[in-house]
Amino acid sequence: MSNLRKRQGESSKFSGQVETAMVKAVTVEQRWHWSGTANQGIWEIDYHQGTGKMVTAGDDGRAMIWEVVPQDGHIDFEYVSSLAKATIVNGCNTAKWSPTGSLIATGYDGGIVSIWRRTKHPTSTSHGDSRYNKEHWVNFKVLKLPIPSDVSVVEWSPDQRTLLAVTAGGPTLIWSITEGTVCKQALQDHQYRACGLAIDPFSTQLCTLGDDQRLCFYNRNNSQTTSQFVTLKVMTSDFAKGLVDQDKFRGLVRRPTWSPDGMFLLVPSAYQSVKKSILEQALKGVATIKKKRKKCHIDLEDDDDQQEEYTELHGCLVFLREKYDKASAFIPAPHGHTPICAAWGKKFYEYIKPCSATSEMFGALPYRMVYAIGSRCRATKVNSVFIYDTVHVNPLIVVNNVHQMPMTGLLFSNDDSTIISSSRDGYVSTIQLNSELLGQTIDAAEGHEVFASSFF
Residue 30: which of 298, 370, 427, 454 has the closest Cα? Predict the structure, then answer.
């Protein structure tokens, strides 16, 4: 394995809120998913807090385990093991740690979902070159799909009883891990290619997003029936035309993500049609942009001129828990940028009174949470990461030139001090945040207690 070679990223100050010394961005240039001549694209990354290890899913058909090693001023990634099937013929699209860290689920082209567990010694089913493996993992279970279809994303329920997967064919598949390998339920609300999946921290609500311009919400069924989840709401292109632009975003990773308190769902890759004059005023801070309830575009309520030219504004939708009839907010990306992926931090922070405009998107929370949105400029092809909190309207900071190709994933480290991103260019980048940028943390139990008192 070659030594690490890092390319320094560029960080930019936004609206004078923070200094550039608050962040350090680095692209870790090493052999991640090496094919012999070049790195293959990385489609997903997942970090397990308890083990301090990260798993990556690559176009070379393998999932790789890496140990995240904090160093003085940066983070290193040390190779641990390769989860490779006997015959690598399918791309590995997704890989996820189980909540306990004892299992890893992987999904492949061709309709294969595998579950891996760690063993003490190499076995006949431990494929790949075991000479370099620090740990040995065995593919001990292959889950059956009712109809073979490429697996886009897999996800564990927080209680580890259930494994879910969305597929290119559309169905969302659900397995009970303790009851064998046969699929227990198939949710059929997508017409084709579901590519996003998120289950809330309480294992009770599920969201899927697809190329068919459908956003589906489900609730766990506690009755004694064969159905584990029942449909709550299906948003289609007729209801929300700007949910997903399938022609311009086909093939991008779209993964909704829940806030750590389980109250908000962040959905990337949305867009709205906005009058050009209103957009120009809003960018100058002159006008307030509001969304008409019966229309998907953003507009001023007192302007009825229907002849004015419109432009597309891309961003992320925010949904409040239990209120899925319409998005509670739309987070616009800078003009020309397309949000591709998003992630929430894992910590809760003390509420601070902002010195500038505040955000009403998340209501009057007694604490703050942080989140990051990864985007790509359609004109310049520049990839950027925007870091927000739930108090301020503007980003806390923006990091540009993160990757050369579109990003495929974002995640926060255990203490929120580092954001890790992956890309189709085959590399992983790290963004280290100064503790002064995010503020003082509070006990996670306090945040969950406030949430529970309001919703349960």
Answer: 427
